[in-house]
Fold these 4 entries.
Entry 1:
Amino acid sequence: METLLYMQTDVFPALLRGFGVSIRLIVPSALVGLAIGIIVGVLRVYGNSFVKIAADLYAGLFRGIPLVIQLFIWYFGLPYFKIFLSPFAASVLGFSLCSGAYHSEYVRGALLSIKRGQMLAAESLGFSKIGMIVSIILPQAVRRALPGAGNEIIYLIKYSSLAYMITCIELTGEGKILASNSFRFTEIFLTVGACYLLMTSVAAIILAKVENHLKIPGFEQQRT
Amino acid sequence: MTSPILRIENLSKKYGQREVLKGVSLEVEKGDLKILIGPSGAGKSTFLHCINFLVKPDEGHVWLDNEEIHPARKRELYAYRQKVGMIFQDFNLFDHLTAFENVRIGLVKVKGIGKDAAGARAAQELERVGLKEHMQKYPSQLSGGQKQRVSIARALAMDPEVMLLDEPTSALDPELIGEVHAVIRDLGKSGMTMIMATHQIGFASSLASEIIFMEDGRILEQGTPSKIFNDPDNSRTREFCSKITDLYGER
Amino acid sequence: MPESLVAVIDAFPYLLQGSLVTLAVVAGALSFGLLVGAPLAIGQVYGGALIRRSVGLYVWFFRGIPLLVFLFLFYFGLCTALGINLSAFTVAIIVLGLISSAYQSQIIRGAIQSLPEGQLKAARALGMSDIKAIVNIIIPQALRLSIPGFSNEYSILLKDSAVTYALGVAEIMARAHFVATRTYHHFPLYFAAGLIFMILTWLGVKVLRLLEDRVRIPGYSHN
């Protein structure tokens, strides 16, 4: 009875609040990350050599350094240069930039996988460069990049928990506070885990639906 | 009267609604070379796979040396398969092992023979099929004909009483067929009991003790090569034989 | 020389010691993950419906929840609830290993499924039991084909191992933070830590590439 009351008055409101913060972290990070990834991915394929090097360097650094360290750099490191970010802002910045680096990899792979003949055929039909990109390249590239990019968003959902480590109190953080106060670590972290499972599963289902919707016979997608 | 070494009764197999084998029976005497002919999809390959239960027949019985095989008894099944060698259309050599190791692995892992003794036997079998100098090569470094000879050596090393050959030359370039046929011919001369599916009519007629014509999951006719090729009773047999001789330009 | 550079140079040996801890955690987790993941993969390919579904559930569970939540759940929750006293280091290896086993099982499963069906058939035709065929024929081939996947898994585990700092494992990240809070040179120290991770990634991938070449068999391709 006491447990039930505790769950009702303390656990649910706190976890709900944390869930809300997590969503507010994930959604903008996913969108900004995707936008960065598309731009950088395109630059890595079609940019001039200077742009290519810069874009490759960005992707290499942000995929090579652990995300926790990146978050620490944005939150604890930037004040070194007299720039101060809130935990929330530092988290969104960190997630977007890291996610963008991974997305750029999938976009790049997708663009490179399109056969030269596709472009030759489009040019021979008299497509303009823009027309070719919009009508021929993008529809193919989107399908190729989708599984990887979708996976990256599922990773982002899980990695959003790292915001707690720079004191942005989202789902994991609320769970940690609740658990530390009540010493019910197992129950609370299982509940928190269930919330993440819900998010990742819903994302996976949506991804599968979209992939299925865009499926073309014989057009193979690269699996990651 | 001798009793058959291998007796097969009423083998049937269905894939979903499709009946691939419709109660096929066959008796094989020691030293026989039975050759299965017939159009693709006739059930020859399924028949061979069912004989050693690589494909589980829905019905039917198999006896080896007058002992019925119960495939549900695993130990019995494994022992039986050692006595029945199988040669596949696409060789199925173990891709991570050299020719030598391919032949040795069954001896070591199935028969439990020590590595040295097994190695000596493997070398001997590879020499028998003329591949002594290619022992240390991996499957990808061998030609199709060499691969098939390794797979024959692999089966022979197990001292089989009967060999099943499922179109052993159909995946080979024409110029490589001869070397495999030579090995099979030698086997026949040494008295090996064999059942072979093939489209090579010329080879079949020169070697077979009996030709078995299969179509649509059934044996339509069986008899000596001269009977089947020159004077078949069944009109379908005649049609098939004339078609296939046209196609391959043999005989 | 700028003060920040001095701080990094001073801390460098200390950070490098941390990389030994990091590598120990990663090596432990990778091995543990393989030990659990390989049987899972075999179960998922060759097992009955119940086994297949159980493995699927296991994979879904360990891939669907963040590492940090698992670390807290095991270290603060389950260890206490079950009355077992494990060090943060051990828990880090177990948790990373369990998560990795879910991913590794899928790498190995993919490799097994990419093998031609005839391999198993030929083994059976020689009289091998299914277990013998899987151990002697399927697994040696599948593991070779899995090496690029393991290499990827290594670099993911390496980066994820930085999260174990949350339990107080004295790996690179924890040490960088420890020095940073004392010297106030946060940015250069974190950056140095990040570079050490990149170097470790590069080294590990190199080592796995060497391993791949060593066990390479003619005719087996990288993909």
Entry 2:
Amino acid sequence: MTDLPPVNEKYTGTIGEVVLGKGDYIVGGAKGMPFLSFEHRTNRRPIVAGEVYDTLVDYPELAANMFDGRQKDPVEWAYMWKTLGVDMICVRLASLDPAKGGTTPEAAAELVKKISDKTGLPIIVSGCGILDIDIPAFTAISAAVTDSRLILSKVDEDEYKKLATVAIANNHVIIGFANLDVNLSKQMNILLTDFGVKKENILTDPLMAPLGMGLDYSYSVNERIRISGLMGDKMLQQPLICDCTDSWNVSDAINEEDPSLGDARLRATWWEAMTAMSAIVSGADMVIMRGPGAADMVLGYCDELRDVI
Amino acid sequence: MPTAIEFFKLLPKTNCKDCGQPTCLAFAMLLSNQKAKIEDCPHVKQEAKETLAEASAPPVKTVDVGGIKMGGETVLYRHERRFNNPIAYALTVSDSLDSVAIAERVAYIKSLAFDRVGMIFKADMASIRNDSGDAENFARAVKDVCSAWDGPIVIESTDAACIEAAVKATDRKPLIYGADKDRLEAYVNIAKENKCPLALICDGPEGAVELVEAAEKMGFQDIILDLSAQNLKETLEEQTIVRRAAIKKKFKPFAYPMMNKVGSGEYAVATAVMSTLKYGSLVIFDDLKNYEALPLFTLRQNIYTDPQVPIQVKQDLYPIGNPDEHSPIMFTTNFSLTYFTVRADIEKSKIPVWLQIVNTEGLSVLTAYSAGKFEPERIADAFAESGVLSKSDGPVIIPGLVTRISGKLQELIGRKVVVGTNESRDIPKHLRELTSQ
């Protein structure tokens, strides 16, 4: 019988590590393509974050129904995620937007602090998308939460200095948004490090397009970024964070009108789970999830796919 | 696939232009991109031709399974070129079912078909399983399935006599599942004689080498490999090892498509997802629900698209939410991402809209505009073709990014044009404001 040829790749680069929360969570550190233990054994699996909103305005009802009413209180909601076993909480402060409640920076900071204290988990904070409103809120939050390293989400090439300043001041982590572009991913890391953000405080969000909405692009962009990083490109070695929650906006996923498509809750759950599986297999070091069922699947599969079950 | 330089070395290097290219190097580059054939050069030596044919043979064989091509892959990552032959999905039909139940089962398999903007996603194969252990009954079940099912089939049995009876019961060339070490000789003989493809049930990659070499020694090559992976991790690792060896090391025993039998339920679907992402060519399910099938089929479509060609939507008028004769008319390009994004945002507004898609050859709004493929004339033609302007007297909304052509468009269609939003995500707000006026 012919012997098997060796197929291990010899990579020269290592993906950077970012320390989160109270120092109890580390993301990154890959030395090979995901989960291939014959090539590189690692005890670390991707980190899974559960998403909560501070207002249910525009939050899909199909997803809201999965949380037994606890979605009405973001602190309780976050705690429910913890009991489900996730590693992190992603807090979306949509109500900072005056059209959705106009929460003050102080109130936002108090909420994030409460969630951090109640769950003890690392927190990703995202704003309402209006920069002039988000910056004061991020400033208040990052000063209020001093015993846990937050992830501040997120900056693009046009406007990164203000949020980067907030992150630097309190040693929090920042996400650079790469909008499905390998070159932009590199550019963001250069801009942020030139500005003074330490590499160990930067995550890359390559934009995880959900299944049927451009997942093909994201899958390949993730692979290209990861392969380049492993081949030694130092500006493409930041851990990748993939937000899979957009799956719940895909009409085929959430269609409740057409009975031939089957149960919408189960379908949307699979939609997000498959998006997340594509993310972790193509290089994601961290995923953000909306549905508890999908998050549970991904947690289980990640545990199995790393070396130790 | 050899590189351009490797091809170049074997060419006459006379730059005679007889192949239609300005230089031998230019021709070599086309060859390495599979955009030219070596026969196009009339001067290349026979010896060189053979060397090249050998070197450029695809590292994974293409195996025909009842009309579905499996394998034939040349790369490990889809961004390098593209994956060629999409994975197929099969559902089991037990031969312990009577003829009526089989007809129902086939009808169920057929019901797993979805139309996604002009593309039909469906289950590909029926896999008839010999649960009865009876040859005559197995042959009857194959006939029952074939009378209701036009697509390719798999026949599953551990008994050579049953396989033989089933093969004789149909003029299709079913995939035979399958031969382990003990059944290899008998099954290869049946497959060879009846020109059917055969699955080899192997004990991991090492076991596959042994079985493949034995089958090849018998002169048989229509092989699909089942590595018998027991879980997600084995599926990922073993299929990666096999495909890497085939593509990077030209390891001949692994030059075959791979398949999985996964059962049913959540873990089965997850395993199918892994196989779809990582080099599988066929998954056989005991069962698959519609809410699992649509996302899985969509994933397959995403993974197997050509990364260099944007996915396009058909130029057409798409009514969203029962629009009437006063509903707003919107339009955008036929780049599928643009279409799906705009569509999702319109749906979010809960306001019925006529959405006209304009063929821009798969380019997004700004790119299409810059390339001269989103001109007012082209848009007006699409309007005329669908007759949308006679279907509604509602406002015509132009994408905010191409506001500059609104004057010309207004002139061409003879209707007032309202400027829309730059970003798709602002559509719901804009539509609500517009319709409340």
Entry 3:
Amino acid sequence: MSKTSDDILAKFARDGLDGLTPDEVNLLEGLLNSRPDVAQELEPTVARPDERLAAALQADEQLPSDAAWQNVWDKVETGAAPVATPGSRTLRLWRVLAPVTAAAACLVMVLMWQFGGQDTGADEFWPLSPGGTFEIHEIETYGDATFLIAAGGEESVDVIWVLEQES
Amino acid sequence: MNSVNRSAVDKSEVRLLQRARDGDRDARRELFEQHREIAYRVALRVTNRPEDALDVVQDAFIRAFDRLGTFNRESGFRTWFLRIVTNRALDLIRARKVRLAVPLDSSDDDPAPAVSSGPAPPDAGMQSSELGDRLRTAIDALPPAQRAVFSLYATGELTYAEIAEALDIPVGTVMSRLYHARRRLHELLPDLAPPDG
């Protein structure tokens, strides 16, 4: 350490904070913040006000009564989260798994949709592909908007969107 | 406290916190009774109002019990809890928009505002009350950063490391803010300044 650092530390050890000038305090701050080994020697020290200040602070403090503390505790009890029960652990687990499960189900549906149909060369990153062979059972139109075709299968109804070709 | 006793205290606290985290009402009550006074004293020095200090303590305990699952035990519970207390108290005074004698963003080098300090009355009770008023006024004039450090320091129970941890600042910065806070208070309350020499 430089002589200046040694001087600052020595002066601080001898006279405390009150014995330092503002510039010396700035140096001390920089020294302690940059030298953990030096700070470590100071850290365990209990920071206590001097006698006069401590006496003034203590005289000024009026701690709450027992009744006041009980009132605070009653509010803490009602304000805090419900007491944990064994069942709530399961609920918390489900709250985490539910969105994950939903996302996995959507992914499976998309993959089934993509790989279940004929490979028509659709972009591999786009799960939709042009329809292959299907039987149209019903057509609905909405003016110039997208045509909605409901193609019925043996066990389910497939909804296929046919988008207008842009001219 | 020797290392053996400290280890025993730590384990005891770990067990208590585990029970409190599991919702044990008695464990939570025990934590409340262990830490309510120091929390109140810190909150009182930051907010300068007993009723606000109680609100801060109440809110801090509610938050602490809600967040016990996030307490990672790198610091003691008291330090972690006092961080919550200090932050809540600072939030409250910012929300209250108290008119301080010194602006909230004043630098540490700004001169201290004048605080009325007329001659002390002869009656000891009045003298104590008047000193308390002046002390509160002087603390109220500190910028929030200095006030927070001073409030924790004023408890006389925390190490510099604990103060640093509670405020999430380095120890050197604790010393600096404490220095400037004390210097400002001594300017305003020369009868509380340490004697020269």
Entry 4:
Amino acid sequence: MNWIANNLDQVGQLTLAHLAIALPPIVLSFVISVPIGWLANRLRWSRGILRWSSGALLTLCVLLYAIPSFPLFVALPSLIGTGLRDPVNVVVGLTLYGIALMVRTSADGLAAVDPDVRESATAVGFSGWSRFWRVELPLSAPVLLAGLRVVAVSTVSLTTVGAVLGISSLGTLFTDGFQRNIPAEIATGIVVTMAIALIIDAILVLVGRLLLPWVRATSRAGGPRTSRSVKQAVVT
Amino acid sequence: MIEFRSVSKQFPGGTVAVNDFSLVIPSRKTTVLVGSSGSGKTTILRMINRMIDPTSGSIEIDGEDISTLQPVKLRRRIGYVMQNSGLLPHFSVIDNVATVPILSGMPKKKAREQSLALLDTVGLDRSLAHRYPSQLSGGQQQRVGVARGLAANPNILLMDEPFGAVDPIVRAELQAELIRLQRELDKTVVFVTHDIDEAFLLGDQVVILETGGHIVQVGSPTEILSDPANDFVASFIGADKGKRALTIRKTPRGEILVDSEGRAAGVLVPAQDGADR
């Protein structure tokens, strides 16, 4: 405990550095994955080679996750022209991992929108664009949010890997703690990293509740509205 | 007036859903398309708001060829009510009703005020305005669906088996409500159903369809019942058997009408003026 009290400043600075690396990939992978997921869905409903390319696109994105992180962070500087110790390397690498997790979820979430609802939105006069923003995206939001929560905690945790390359984050507490044999420092790194992951997760849940009030109303009323649940609905 | 001229629709898989279909749907009347599954009735309905485009032939609304109109704009001026309401689950009742006016550019506040009034029109309590569709019963959801269909004050209202998924008691209520609404609002209603009783109850003009959108008979319920075009129609409307084939039976207390099963179905009373449709 003494160690923490004496190094509070350093822990605070590393926490900020950690957030500066972890937050952009969370946002970026979401913003990049949703259009890719949308595209994969569009291709899935077309014919021939295009239909095949939908599966290829999804598989390609998921394969990103199979690239080992250490070699990726080492190789990225030469690929994107950054310095070996530039935090941007980690941001880019984590964004790629985030995309790997998020693209499949985005495609599944958008595909799971009730076709009846999509059709009725078209029938009353939503254009393709407004239907995406006002119907398909909000209705797939619960699934997207679930995916984003996984990306968020995973990204916060993976950010520590950068420390091995000398990029400051809470991971620095592990490398430094190991080298100087200070167990309290290692423990602090682990606990603070997990705490940040939990806090970000809690914020996402809260934002979800605020932005998607209909989800709770619907689950209280007995599950999402499907054509079946309407048929079974209680009489007026 | 909506006019179909030799309209055919072949789907990409090769199925011919509608083959050489021609029909005039008069304004300010209710036209009911009735037929079993595969008769192409829903395809015909959806061609009116260009949810489906015909492979050949043309469709005109008040003399205007709809293939020259922008589908999105066309749909916004035609009311559409579907089975299972088709309400947006993430919009409150009031926002569902206000959807089309807001899409067409009406200020939100005004659209919501107008939608509240529409809830009254379809017989829904205003206290339901801020609920979500999932919190309503099936019958209430259909009423919201009708209110949404009326929100842009369209001349044409398309109804695709709107009461197919509710139980018989609620269905009867909704049918009565639609008859009342139609008396007040005078829309051109095109209604699709597979239920011949519903067709006769609601339709000024009833169109009986066979596979491929082939018209077997068009006429008022009276015309069809009194003179079925062929055995198919007679059997479809049940004129040859069951509850529509009534005979008079004398009883000690007077004459009653019985159906073919011998069950009492009603009594004969003197005709009222104007009861003929």
